[in-house]
Amino acid sequence: MKYLTFLSVFFCFLIASSASAAEEIKYLTPEEFVIIPWGHIPDDLEVLRTIRECGFNMAGLASDKTLDLVHEAGLKALLFNPDFHAHHDTLTLGKEEIQKRADAAAAVAPGHPALYGYFLRDEPGANDYPALALWREAFSRADPDTPAYINLFPNYASPDQMNVPTYEEYVETFIATVKPEILSYDHYALMEGGVLRNGYFSNLETIRAAALRHDLPFWNIVLSNAHFNYMEPTAAGFRFQLYTTLAYGAKGICYFTYFTPTTGNYRLGPIDQFEDKTPTWHMLRNVNLQLHRIGPVYITLKSKNVFHHPNVPDGCRGMETSLYLSHLEGGDLMAGEFENPEGQPFVLVVNKSLHHSCTVEAAFKEGSNILCVNAWTGLIHAWRGEHRWLAPGQGMLMTISRLEE
């Protein structure tokens, strides 16, 4: 009786998925979920096609001269131009000059199919928020249908960098002052020795809460190279970064960087300093394709709760807050809880270990016929047997076929 509409649609989706499982993977659109490599992109069609082949639906930061090639490669991009990069001298411009520059930017490629948004600023301090608000408002007037994008610091930024005492104030003041269309931040948490930086999950908690409170989509920028004292990329690290981000209800993920900088100890980006693919490229493509496979279900869901079990990081919640599960064990786990438009519960369980696989035992509070969305095929099928195994960092999106038996 409950969720009959969902069940009819659900099994139609299952049949359709079975028919198309062997066909080419259909990519999510950026409007559904953003997958973007951080950095400027060259004016080179073959390079852009390789970005698309790696599983991205966005190309990075593009000039207006590159937009046609971005579109030909099947991608979108954030438009970058020093004239409207809200940094240093441009922050002191008057309102009329800011509007003039925003109008000029919008006139360059009005309605271009490759234009996703305008890149304004990376990691501002709160002292810059009033000027950034002028820029965002100017772009809203010049091009109301295209967002102006700003990315925030992580929670390990110092008060001097943020210009405010706490990270929560930094985020809330940004939203109140700038009124962004997207809430985006970066957090590089995978450290040498295969350990996780403290505060990774509390940062997700803060951003998720703010995004829900203000009805904003949020993006997480994570690592895809090694530098400083960050660990070299691994398949487990990519799975961990993707699935923990999804469990918190994100609508976008960005990887820093695609092209490896020729600086210091930067190494093992997807494309190395000699313009060759590295093993990282293939690992990143693998998780991007997993996202495209589970994406048709994931993008319909609304985040309702997140909990950790049995190890609860600072600032996070434990299993006693679970809305849908009565039992969960098997490793160091976390779970994002969601509902689809029909009210059907979904749970994304993630193995938080970067080193060890685990077998998961789970039970829903209502109903025992557990199904999962297969990250390799996109098929929805019974969750049992070897499907209970999770590799390090791996996630599994589960639901039940009915609540009353």
Walk me through what this model shows.
- With 405 residues, the chain is an alpha/beta fold.
- The chain is 31% helix and 23% strand.
- It has ten helices and 20 strands.
- It has an eight-stranded parallel sheet with strand order 1-10-9-6-5-4-3-2. It has a six-stranded antiparallel sheet with strand order 11-13-14-20-17-18.
- It starts with a helix and ends in a 5-residue tail after the last strand.
Short description:
This protein is of the alpha/beta class and 405 residues long. It has helices spanning 4-20, 45-53, 67-72, 95-108, 129-142, 159-162, 167-178, 200-214, 235-247, 279-298, and strands spanning 34-37, 58-62, 76-79, 115-122, 148-152, 183-186, 190-191, 195-196, 218-223, 252-256, 302-309, 325-329, 333-339, 345-351, 358-359, 361-364, 370-373, 380-382, 389-390, 395-400. The protein has an eight-stranded parallel sheet with strand order 1-10-9-6-5-4-3-2. A six-stranded antiparallel sheet has the order 11-13-14-20-17-18. Strands 7-8 form a two-stranded antiparallel sheet.
Regarding quaternary structure, what we see is single chain
Summed up, the helix count is 10
- Secondary-structure element pattern, one letter each: HEHEHEHEHEHHEEEHEHEHEEEEEEEEEE
Please report which band the strand proportion falls in: under 5%, 5-15%, 15-25%, 25-35%, 35-45% or over 45%.
Answer: 15-25%
The major sheet is characterized as: 8 strands, parallel
- Rg, Å, rounded: 21 Å
Helix and strand topology:
Blueprint: H1 4-20, E1 34-37, H2 45-53, E2 58-62, H3 67-72, E3 76-79, H4 95-108, E4 115-122, H5 129-142, E5 148-152, H6 159-162, H7 167-178, E6 183-186, E7 190-191, E8 195-196, H8 200-214, E9 218-223, H9 235-247, E10 252-256, H10 279-298, E11 302-309, E12 325-329, E13 333-339, E14 345-351, E15 358-359, E16 361-364, E17 370-373, E18 380-382, E19 389-390, E20 395-400
Parallel strand pairs: 1-10, 2-3, 3-4, 4-5, 5-6, 6-9, 9-10
Antiparallel strand pairs: 7-8, 11-13, 12-16, 13-14, 14-20, 15-19, 17-18, 17-20
Helix pairs in contact: 4-5, 5-7, 7-8, 9-10
